[in-house]
């Protein structure tokens, strides 16, 4: 969940804000229900955001060239819903 929030924070503000608010309420509910310790929840939030923000440049650097290569390959119909040419 935290990786998703970290990723959505990089998107347009309404999505990132909504995801952050929902994640806060979920974390609060988990602590309130006694399912997790507060330190475990806050550590998970920090770790999830760091992984999402740190993985973003790596994913973009790998996936954008791969997508560009796939648009010129015979596998284009398998990788894309519409014709990109």
Write a short abstract of this structure:
The protein is 78% helix and 0% strand. The protein is built from 4 helices and no strands.
Q: How many helices does DSSP assign?
A: 4
Low-confidence stretches: none
Task: Estimate the strand proportion.
Answer: under 5%
> Could you tell me the number of beta strands?
0
Which whole number gives the mean pLDDT?
A: 79
What's the number of structural domains? 1
Overall form: elongated
Main traits of this protein?
single chain, 85 residues, mainly alpha, 4 helices, 0% strand, elongated
Would you mind describing this structure in some detail?
The chain is mostly helical. The protein has one domain (2-79). 78% of the residues lie in helices and 0% in strands. It has four helices and no strands. Helix 1 (2-9) packs antiparallel against helix 2. The longest helix is centred in the middle third of the chain and has 34 residues, at 38-71. The radius of gyration is 18 Å and the shape is elongated. The mean pLDDT is 79.
């Amino acid at each position: 969940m935290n990786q998703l929030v970290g990723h959505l924070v990089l998107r347009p503000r309404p999505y990132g804000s909504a995801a952050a608010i929902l994640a806060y309420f979920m974390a609060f509910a988990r602590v309130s229900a006694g399912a997790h310790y507060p330190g475990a929840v806050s550590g998970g939030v920090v770790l999830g955001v760091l992984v999402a923000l740190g993985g973003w440049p790596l994913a973009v650097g790998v996936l954008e060239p791969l997508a560009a290569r796939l648009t010129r390959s015979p596998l284009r119909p398998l990788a894309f819903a519409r014709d990109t040419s």
